[in-house]
Amino acid sequence: MKDLIQLGGISIEVDRKAIKNVHLSVHPPDGRVTMSAPLNTRLEVARAYAITRLAWIRTQQKKMKDQLREMPRRYVQRESHYLWGRRYLLNVVHTEDKAHVTIDHKRITLHVKSGSNKSKREAVLYEWQKSLLHDYIQQVIPKWEKTLGVKVSAYYVQRMKTKWGSCNHRSGNIRLNTELVKKPKDLVEYVIVHEMAHLLFPTHGENYVALMNRFYPNWREARMELNDLPLGHVEWKKL
Predict the structure, then answer these.
(1) 0.90 surpassed by pTM
(2) Are residues 45 and 88 both part of a single domain?
(3) Would you call 33 helix, strand, or coil by DSSP?
(4) Which of 44, 105, 111, 187 is least surrounded by Cβ atoms within 10 Å, i.e. has the fewest?
(5) What is the residue range of 21's domain?
(6) CA–centroid distance for 111 within its chain
(7) Is residue 234 part of a domain?
(8) 156 pairs with which residues across the strands?
């Protein structure tokens, strides 16, 4: 059962769940606000709690509004692109072979046919980045399956507008944002662990927090660092 609280232009979606405490969240990129509350919480009680947290909500929303966003990419010579948190310059090379990507310590080289347009270059680079992300995820998941004692039925990598990842605890599936390939690997690992932990505890309740504190004690710092990094231009545009 979900209700909506309106506070001075701020909408808060209230979702009642089988939890002990109230949890308030502000979600990137546009500062959407949600509240998870125990099943028997009256709406006026939820509203009173939200009022006490109004200053915090506005602070979080301002941070998201002010957060750096990537400039639109044109996929041209010497343009900046990021991989695993490092900046590379794009090198565009014409070839008659199948389009592909290579990398050295300074450059990402995009091998494409002469006359290729922006959409084609973007697609080639995107598929290459996605393959790298797949490779890394396949290293991380087995490690944490053993640590957490869970099993990921399947994972999916896709463009996501408002989340770094998501979890369907009933099916055992997790989904991860392709933008993660641009972020440092330790932060990507944090997102994977975050979603895998939801296979055990679907909400961000006390049990979930205790699990993260035990197995990934610096998760709060990782979350803060990740959310302070520039947001992708397309994937994170305002809905």
Answers:
(1) no
(2) no
(3) strand
(4) 105
(5) 2-66
(6) 29
(7) no
(8) 175
**Same domain flag for 166 and 216:** yes
pLDDT in tens, 35-75: 999 999 999 999 999 999 999 999 988 877 766 556 778 99
Beta bridge partners of 16: 37
Domain total in the chain: 2
41 plus 152 within the same structural domain? no
Judged by average pLDDT, the poorest of 56-70, 80-94, 162-176, 196-210 is 56-70
Whole-angstrom CA distances from 233 to 27, 168, 230 are: 17, 27, 9
Smallest CA-to-CA distance from 90 within 107, 112, 105 is with: 107
Tell me the three state secondary structure of residue 167.
Answer: strand
3-class DSSP assignment, residue 39: coil
The reply to whether 6 falls in a domain is yes
In a domain, 238, yes or no: no
Compute the distance between CA of residue 108 and CA of residue 96 in angstroms, rounded to an integer.
Answer: 19
239 in a structural domain: no
| Structure tokens that stand for 35 in this block | 């509240």
